[in-house]
């Protein structure tokens, strides 16, 4: 990884990418010609500059978004409620939720019917005892 300042190259650290070993990175850097190194340094500086520009644009967009929300009276609590509502709607629209809900509903109806019949049997027994 090469870091640049307005004066030029600050330092050069070789950090291997995921799955790459340090020895391979060092040997690859040694095989580059000076011209290839210069090209890569220019590309690196360009990409770093693009990243900085994109970060600044993103920050400006986020400030603009916050301003629009403020003008609309949207606050964090309202956003949280909207997110929860949307998430709940997403969950309830899934096939798995619908199947589970139907199964639980049927189980509840069967349990209710069973309790009802047990209750009527108990009531009948009490009436017979009297």
TrEMBL record:
Domain of life: Eukaryota
Coiled coil (residue ranges): 30-71
Family: Belongs to the TPD52 family.
Pfam families per the UniProt record, alphabetical: TPD52 (PF04201)
Entry protein name: TPD52 protein
Keyword Methyltransferase recorded: no
Entry keyword set: Coiled coil
Cellular component GO terms, alphabetical: cytoplasm
GO biological process terms on file: B cell differentiation
Keyword set includes RNA-binding: no
């Amino acid at each position: 990884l090469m870091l640049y300042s307005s004066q030029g190259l600050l330092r050069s650290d070789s950090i291997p990418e995921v799955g790459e070993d340090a020895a391979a990175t060092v040997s690859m850097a040694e095989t580059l010609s000076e011209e290839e190194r210069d090209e890569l340094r220019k590309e690196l500086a360009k990409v770093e500059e693009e990243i900085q520009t994109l970060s600044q644009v993103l920050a400006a967009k986020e400030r603009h978004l916050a301003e629009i929300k403020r003008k609309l009276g949207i606050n964090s609590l309202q956003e949280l409620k909207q997110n929860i509502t949307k998430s709940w709607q997403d969950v309830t629209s899934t096939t798995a939720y619908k199947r589970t809900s139907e199964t639980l509903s049927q189980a509840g109806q069967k349990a209710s019917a069973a309790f009802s019949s047990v209750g009527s049997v108990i009531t009948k027994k009490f009436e017979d005892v009297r």
